[in-house]
Structure formats: structure tokens, C-alpha cells
Amino acid sequence: MLYNLFDYLKDYVDFPGLGLFRYISFRAFSAIILSMLIALFLGKRIINKLAKKQIGESIRDLGLEGQMQKKGTPTMGGIIILVSLLIPAILLGDLTNIYVQLMIITTIWLGFIGFLDDYIKVFKKNKEGLKGKFKIVGQVGLGLIVGVSLYLSDQAVVRVPSTSDALESHAEVISQEGFSDKVGYFRDEKSTITTIPFVKDNEFDYAWLSPVGGELGEKISWVIYILMVIFIVTAVSNGTNLTDGMDGLATGVSAIVGVTLAVLAYLSGNIIYANYLNIMYIPNTGELVIVLAAFIGALVGFLWYNSYPAQVFMGDTGSLAIGGIIAVAAIMIHKELLIPILCGIFFVESLSVIIQRLYFKYTRKKYGEGVRVFKMSPLHHHFQKEGIPAIIQFPKRALPEAKIVARFWIIAIILAVVTIVTLKIR
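The chain above was modelled as a monomer; its predicted structure follows.
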């Protein structure tokens, strides 16, 4: 909003400092500071209001150390994250940018679904919350909106080297973010290519999955792409939700993922850096950095209250929205196939639940008694339990919650570094 206002006024008002708003770096730093301050100062008030309304977490006794002490801790704290993210994103982002628009829609859309789930659990006293099929419908609907919007928008393009020999040899000096460099001639095109690690060209095209070529094949490739978008939004959103089971776990891991995505978005949206690093250049994605900066600041601010021992839980209001934001951001910068690495914590947490359920059902059907692979799932609870019959018994003794969370953060940092490094390992 402010960016669009100052951009409009620049030809009419010569006010010192307005030029700073042209720089993504300045607006990104402003967004992260503003979102953090909003989360810190507004968070306390929201927590007090939630506590007064007795909006506390209902805890099932699973025999975990310190678990019952959390009973009554205010939930639905994801509201703090959503408000702290949306205000800086709207104020400092370019609201005419399709990527910013879709990120705002994603935040509100999944935040609302999560809010309904928490509302039913807390106020209607229904532990099941919103029925799973309605959550899936909402996630699929968002994935469809994102996929179709990227297909139809003229802004959602990839800039590739020109196929014209006459133009291919041409180079021009480009200036962006205060830096200049000589780059080759490029052309914009709608494309279903994406980044894939550990291969020579570092790119994969969904069109390769189309059984036919030509114009029909192009349309089929976009259908495949949209189906992949739907799957990724649903999977990552649910994966984040499963990870939200310890104080600060999902918040800290998501902040680390957010930092990585912001770095990738900045590099991908800057023609000079993209040309230097020989990675895919995606015009207009630089604006994503503003939203992701607000996302990071909101999470760090929320972590002030959510770190062990937590004063508030984010609930599905926060976890569903966080997962959707991460998924949609990765899709927009064509890095969705890096998610299993970057979001390895979410991926393994989801996988642990699937393995546990499938193997337990299989052994119960075959032997009459179910066998557990993990002492408990999702995976983070496995490390909290001891004395439970399971195939995997490591560690022998239960670990303190704070230690588990810290170690998961360290693993998330390692995965983030590996994700960035994969861009150059081909």
C-alpha cells in the first residue's frame, strides 16, 4: 500500500527518502522489524484476551513428561502470526504483484480454515474439530486458485535465453537494486519448468510428463502442474500441522525455512544474481521477499511467547497457514521439488505418521496384534517416550522437550544450507 502510494506520488512530490521504497532490501528489513514489533506488543494483549475467554488447549494424557502442565495454555495464537504478517505485507508490498496477492490470499484462506477448526475444538467442545474432508476441500481449493492464477497471469513468467541467434549474442547492461552487470538477451515465457537438485541443468519440466506434444501437450502439462500445486499445498500444510506438537518446534523450523525461501526468492528475482549464479530468473518474485520477511518477523516475534515453556500455542489457525505460505512461496519461485530437502522436518514427521499407521494395521491384520515402528508418532513424540514396545528403541531414555526442539532446529538449519548448496551441485 505505502509502496504503491509512494510510487504514484514520486512524479508529484519530491520528498527525501521516498526513493528508498524502490529497494526490496529496504522494504524487506522494514517488514521484518515491523512484523516482529507487532507480534511482540500485540501478542501479549491477544494472549491475555485468549486467557480471559478461557480459550485453553485441551490436553490428552499421553504419558509425556511435562505434558499435563500445558493444560489450559491459550491456543489460537496463530492469530498473532497472521496479523503480524498481513499488516507489513499489505503496507510495504506491491499490491499489484500477483505473487504478493496470492500470498495474502493464502494466509487469509488457510488461516480461516484453521480458525474454524480451533473454534469448533474450543467453543463447541468437539475434540475432532473441523472434519478432515472440509480441510482437504479448503486446501485443494487454494491449490487450484494458486495453480490457475499462475497459469493465467501475465506476470507469472520465467525469463529464458532467446533462441534467436541474432539476439543471443547481444548483451546489455542491466541495473537492479543498485548493482549493474552485463547480461545476455532474454525473453519472457509461460513455463512449467522447475528446479530439481543434483542434475546437470538443474531443471525439470512438467511438460515431459505429458503423453502428447504440441498445443494439446502444453495444456496437459499445465493440468499436471496444477495437480502438483494442489498436492504440495495440501501435503506441506498438513505436515506443518503435524509438527506443531512441542513448544517452539513448528515456529522455529518454519522461520528457518522462511529465511531460506527469502534468500532463494531474492536471488531468483534479481537478474544480476540469477545470471551470475546461473539459476532460473523469475521476474517479479523479488516482491515475495517482502512477504517472507514479514513471515519471518512474525514467527520470531511469536516465538518470544511460544518458546518453552509456551505461553500460547498457535493452533491450527497458525500451523495450516504457515504450511500453505511455505508451499505457495516455493511453488512461485519454482523450487517446489526442493521441499523434501528444505522441509525435511515436516516431511519426516508426516512420513512417521504414515509408516506408523500402515505398519500397525498391517501387523494387526496379519498377526492379530499391531506392532509399532516408533514408540509414538509424529516423530518428535518418539523421543519423549520410553518403555514402549516398538521396532525402533533409540534413544533408550526419553529426552527433555527443550533438547528435542533445539536439535530439530539444528537439523532444519543443516537442511536449509544443503538446499541452497544444491543449486550449484549439478
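The first strand starts at residue 158 and ends at 161.
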